[in-house]
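Human:
Take a look at this sequence-structure pair and walk me through the tokens.
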Amino acid sequence: MNNGYLDNDGRFPDDTAVLVKYPRPSDSADRDTWPWMTGVILGQVGPDEWDVLVEDHRVTQTDIDGDIVYPMCWRDASELRRIDRGAAS
């Protein structure tokens, strides 16, 4: 264990760039309608579940000090897709 996370099984290594299913504030509870958003894997939390930092500006909030706050969520492998950040350059 490291930082409270399980040993990662390697399917989505820590710090991997991913697309993650995440709702916009106006989205319904139906996960099938949620868009894919950019994120990064923070760690593995279960046999098929990862903690993800969602990096999409559409879902950020501002804290009391005016700092931008990005949401985090737990997602299973069916709600994650690896992306190659180098491909965009």
Summary: The longest strand covers residues 36-46. The radius of gyration is 14 Å. The chain has no helices and seven strands. The chain has one domain: 17-84.
